[in-house]
Amino acid sequence: MAISDEFSQSLIPSFLYSSTKPLSGYDKSSMNANHHNVMPRSPSVSPSSSTKYLACDAGVNSGRILIPAPKEKIQMYSPAFYGACTMGGILSCGLTHTAVTPLDLVKCNMQIDPVKYKSISSGFGVLLREQGVKGLSKGWVPTLLGYSAQGACKFGFYEFFKKYYSDLAGPEYASKYKTLIYLAGSASAEVIADVALCPMEAVKVRVQTQPGFARGLSDGLPKFLQAEGFGGLFKGIVPLWGRQIPYTMMKFASFETIVELLYKHAIPTPKDKCSKPLQLGVSFAGGYIAGVFCAIVSHPADNLVSFLNNAKGATVGDAVKKMGLWGLFTRGLPLRIVMIGTLTGAQWGIYDAFKVFVGLPTTGGGALTPPPAEK
């Protein structure tokens, strides 16, 4: 279904991104008045060249008016833009979390049983002895499904809320308080994303940390529902919010700030003149640094989520009493820093790579306000 020009205009970002500006048009009257003087198409221009053109028939033989098309394949903040960001989020979160399933498996068991799983290396050793190599992939299906759903909501709604809040603030305040825009947009998106993640996260933790409970999602979900009912799938939603909302606020706000600083101080070339591989490298570096901060901020709640999903009927008070405040902040933290740093860097790299693939600019580092219109 065609989208009206007015609707498309209302969705175009005005404060947090600047988009490639197409040519404003051409003088039709002059073309009609003197069409025989229209220059023929240059033979050096080919359809396969990197610059594409729209051809307008002047009515004489093969004469053409050639107009450069916009570089972006998708208009910023159109419905197609949100769809692309949602798909990018699915790929970035679903693939990366599934890839680090062995690390996540060791981390969860270190949090639940630190006596048995004393360190990263010994944790891998225990799992290999007891469950074999195949055991290192336990829980990968709920991981893939849960974090794909979370990634779709996380990135798609972040882009939506970022524009929504910037429009509420207006151009001046959106530029002045851009970090608050990033924080509010990411927090709002994560509230929704965690509702999508929570059921699969509950099954994943139970499968990974209770030997003999289930082989995976197909038998684990029915057993979980039989034991705790449908409401049990959302038992960990509050601590999950406590883990993921600070994590995501740090992830997006610090990433946007770090990327901006990298382009400003570390890279002598303006972003729009940098190659795409360099821009994606900046995205990965910014994501990795942001991931270290994310891991530290969200780790206590991560311990709570693992504890509550492992023990039937457990409460937050039970977790604090058993683990202690120091244990909440430090148990499994080194492994989580390595895992989340790599994970977050890879997520931003994949997300921005997909955006580049569909013709969108990478995230962050661009002008916050569009340049003044030429007179």
Automatic annotation (TrEMBL):
GO terms for biological process: mitochondrial phosphate ion transmembrane transport; response to salt stress. It comes from the Eukaryota. It is found in: Mitochondrion inner membrane. Residues 29-50 are annotated as: Disordered. The keyword Metal-binding does not apply. GO terms for molecular function: mRNA binding; phosphate transmembrane transporter activity. Its main location: mitochondrion. InterPro entries: MCP_dom_sf, MCP_transmembrane, SLC25A3/Pic2/Mir1-like. Residues 40-50 have a biased composition (Low complexity). One of its GO terms (cellular component) is mitochondrial inner membrane. It is a multi-pass membrane protein. Solcar repeats lie at residues 80-164, 177-261, 278-357. Keywords: Membrane, Mitochondrion, Mitochondrion inner membrane, Repeat, Transit peptide, Transmembrane, Transmembrane helix, Transport. Belongs to the mitochondrial carrier (TC 2.A.29) family. Transport of phosphate groups from the cytosol to the mitochondrial matrix. Mediates salt stress tolerance through an ATP-dependent pathway and via modulation of the gibberellin metabolism. This is Phosphate carrier protein. The lineage of its organism: Eukaryota, Viridiplantae, Streptophyta, Embryophyta, Tracheophyta.
